[in-house]
Write a structure and sequence with these properties.
Elements: H1 10-19, H2 27-36, H3 39-46, E1 50-52, E2 57-58, H4 64-104, H5 124-137, H6 141-149, H7 157-160, H8 166-174, H9 179-186, H10 193-211, H11 233-238, H12 248-261, H13 267-278
Antiparallel strand pairs: 1-2
Helix pairs in contact: 1-2, 4-9, 4-10, 4-12, 4-13, 8-10, 9-10
């Protein structure tokens, strides 16, 4: 069977939505948004408003403005999450480079013995070559200076870490051979390396969703991270152990990390304000009913 549907004009798209029960107070405004926000993209945001998915009929009283409001919320949520990820990524970069440089020297990343043997998702030689290729192609002044003056294949740790993607950083950190080296970074956040390793991998997936403007608010993640079970106590007590595939646990760990990285970040308050403004169904994001009473979401935890 071949797909044989013809594309609708924006007017036809809106007419179809209205026929299905979507109220539209301002037709010109709705057509404007349909002209700039793909109909198929918006369809993910009107699903919660459908009374019957088979017929796509809307619940009585559903407005185009309600769908648009949910879309705007998700966009603002992605930007807020990206803000948190940036701070965490920069902090972990710093900790990884500082730890290795002081334990093994400025070019510890050139010592294959400090990293795990090749496995399904890791090959030290291959990853080193990728990093060197990226460094040599880069137009960053500090990298150009390095190759003009020195003959090492890569600059020292504190420089090379600045061109790593979050995905690369996650791999280089998680594939350190010695657990003590991984823990030296993780303990800066009161976490164990097994949890930080897993969370960084998870964050690289979340960041890709955000960077590609994909829906985040009610997504069920296929790749989850290993939840802490013992430490830090405030974080363990604040997680939702019954729903590990929704966004709540991700937000909770980000909040914990930011409390240590940037004590005056106000990120949690910005998130609370966003949730309150849009009156979002928090169950779709994995929030427990008592989430605001849990330790992380109260005063700053030590």
């Amino acid at each position: 069977m071949k797909f044989n549907k013809s594309p609708f004009t924006h007017e036809q798209q809106l007419d179809q939505l209205i026929q299905r029960g979507l109220a539209c107070a301002d037709r010109a405004e709705a057509l404007h948004y349909l002209g700039h926000l793909n109909y198929y993209r918006l369809s993910a945001y009107w699903l919660p408003f459908e009374a019957d998915h088979a017929s796509h009929a809307f619940k009585p009283g559903t407005r185009f403005a309600d769908v648009l409001s949910l879309y705007v919320f998700d966009r603002e949520l992605r930007l807020l999450v990206l803000d948190a990820i940036e701070r965490v990524e920069v902090s972990v970069r710093t900790g990884w480079a500082y730890t290795l440089a002081h334990r093994y020297g400025p070019h510890a990343h050139l010592n294959a013995n400090l990293f795990k043997k090749p496995a399904r998702n890791w090959d030290y030689s291959q990853q080193s070559q990728k990093l060197e290729a990226a460094a040599r192609k880069s137009h960053e002044t500090f990298l150009q200076h390095h190759y003009q003056k020195y003959d090492e294949p890569l600059p020292p740790l504190w420089a090379v870490v600045e061109i790593m993607t979050l995905g690369q950083l996650s791999k280089w950190y998680s594939n350190l051979r010695h657990g003590a080296d991984r823990n030296a970074v993780a303990h800066r956040y009161g976490m164990d390396e097994t949890n930080l390793t897993s969370f960084l991998h998870h964050l690289s997936v979340i960041r890709n969703f955000c960077a590609h403007h994909s829906r985040l608010w009610n997504r069920e993640f296929t790749f989850t991270f290993r939840l802490p079970s013992h430490r830090p106590p405030a974080l363990v007590a604040s997680l939702n152990q019954q729903d590990s595939r929704r966004l709540y646990n991700t937000l909770t760990v980000l909040a914990w990390l930011l409390d240590g990285i940037s004590p005056q970040h106000h990120w949690k308050q910005r998130l609370k304000t966003l949730l309150a403004q849009q009156a979002i169904d928090l169950l779709r994001m994995g929030f427990p009913a008592d989430w605001e009473q849990r330790a992380i979401w109260q005063e700053r935890t030590p």
